[in-house]
Amino acid sequence: MLPQQPLVSVVMPVYNGGLFLQESIDSILAQKYRHFEFIIVNDGSTDHTESIILSNYDDRIRYFRNETNKGLIYSLNYAIDRANGEYIARIDADDVAITDRIENQIAFLLNNTDYGICGTNFIQIDRNGKLISKVSLPLSDEDAQTLLFFGNVFCHSSMMIRASLIRLYQYRDEYLVCEDYDLWSRIAKQTKVANLPGFSTLYRMHGNNFSVKERQTMNKVISKINERFLKEWNIQYTQDELIIHANFLQYNYPLYKDEQEVADLQRWLIKLIWYLEKMKGMNNDLAMKSILSRWISICFNVKNYKMLLFNPFFQRFRELYLKCMMEKIFNKMLYKKMLHAY
Predict the structure, then answer these.
(1) Which domain holds residue 291?
(2) Hey, is 202 helix, strand or coil?
(3) Residues 178 and 243 both lie in one domain
(4) Whole-prediction pTM value?
(5) Predicted confidence band at 278 (pLDDT cuts at 50, 70, 90)?
(6) Which among 315, 311, 320 is positioned nearest to 286, based on CA atoms?
(7) Are residues 104 and 249 in the same domain?
(8) Are 80 and 173 in the same domain?
(9) Does 228 fall in a domain?
(10) Mean pLDDT of 294-310
């Protein structure tokens, strides 16, 4: 039993989510931690979403309905504005929370008052609930802050945030996708952040995931966030280098079949490494590993094995480079094995 029982507001926006909604609702109602309100916002659904919600007789559920579809960001901020809890926990209508998720996150935030947000590792499942993969995220503040520079390191559907912080920063309308990455990157400048080690969230992958349908828009938004990070870390760049940086971080593989693109990328990475090695508050080894792993992934993907071995990074970071390369080979073999079993 926790020493005190702060109220948690679990927030779930849903639009035409009837297919997986009941399983997600059940996972929240079955949480070991009981002192919560469950705010569900039906964002103008036209399927049987409403009937599913109303079939759940639990006085912790607070149901709101948008007459028309107003979008995820509107619905999230709407729910947060009406939340009574000291903490906001997120869950999407197609994902599942393991029974001790909220209990563990509350215990962490109560005992670590200098942390403002925490997520969890997660398990990817398919539409039938079958395991796809386990995803481990950076746990410590330093590691999470470092890797936020390269991309999102939190699973949105696993997050718990102090209500005072999320009300201050809010989700922003101009980030119609990656709204969570934008939010975490801003909050992380003001507080410590973490992921808990347990795999406490089941994240469902299926053809209706917003990130799959809106890939092009997502890339533009991520590029905007990438630029903000470069400015905040005082890294000098040209507009051409910004494009190179964004394509590299987003694994835009087809570009690197062109030798000039590879040469331009090498020059940018040499410059980027020079800046990052001087940064304080960053895990430099982890930053270098992230860069090298991406470079190696590109080499493998375009089957340019000359580029894999004959480059300035292999010569300078030989031990780390070889370690990253072996991890890539092992993971590729493991992935093929999983596909065969699947």
Answers:
(1) 233-341
(2) strand
(3) no
(4) 0.88
(5) confident
(6) 320
(7) no
(8) yes
(9) no
(10) 89
